[in-house]
Amino acid sequence: MALVGRKAPVFNAPAVINGEEIVEGFSLQQYLGKRDVIFFFYPKDFTFVCPTEILAFQEKLAEFEKRNVAVVGCSTDTENSHLAWLTTPKAQGGIQGVTYPIVADVAKTISLNYGVLAGEYEYNEEGMMEFKGIPIAYRATFLIDKNGIVRHELVNDLPLGRNIDEAIRIVDALRHNEKYGEVCPANWEEGKDAMKASREGVADYLAKH
């Protein structure tokens, strides 16, 4: 079930912050009332597409921060695996230099509650619990507003890397709607025309474009 329009699932889990420190009980609740959050899942540490995405978020981190948006990553790896990867140089396949938090969803409950685990648990004919699929997270991105409501979600299959600029565009669209009350049409970008949420507004927009 899509989470858009609903409260983002709450969690407390270990995380690595500032690229070097393990903390217990990390939660997105710390941002409530203060900042929007881009919360993204990736499949595994020490893989291939994942570091390109994680480093791309870091490269755009200033763009998110100037919009008062926190970026937080998450996978089902342990916090120790995260720390090892975060302290491995990029030339050796690591993600050294990443400073935003990366959460350890070892129990896989965060991925389950966000609906992005690439499989599911079920009982076999002998009554034993089995996992069908792959026990890692899909490439999922959520925009959570200051009230803790999910305003956008995008889920990619494992081989498909995401577009970080699209995450920024979605933040800009949310900001525009909050500030002006206008809705953002297809392919809208900051600085382009939006439109009023009415038949007249749509007609006026289409007539100009």
UniProtKB/TrEMBL annotation:
Q: Which UniProt keywords apply?
A: Cytoplasm, Disulfide bond, Oxidoreductase, Peroxidase, Redox-active center
| Chief location category | cytoplasm
Task: Return any one Pfam family short name.
Answer: 1-cysPrx_C
Protein localization: Cytoplasm
One annotated Gene Ontology cellular component of this protein: cytosol
Membrane-crossing residues?
A: none
Listed GO MF terms: thioredoxin peroxidase activity
Top-rank taxon, per record: Bacteria
Q: Which residues form the active site?
A: C50 (cysteine sulfenic acid (-soh) intermediate)
Family assignment? Answer: Belongs to the peroxiredoxin family. AhpC/Prx1 subfamily.
Q: What does this protein do?
A: Thiol-specific peroxidase that catalyzes the reduction of hydrogen peroxide and organic hydroperoxides to water and alcohols, respectively. Plays a role in cell protection against oxidative stress by detoxifying peroxides.
Q: What is this protein called?
A: Thioredoxin peroxidase
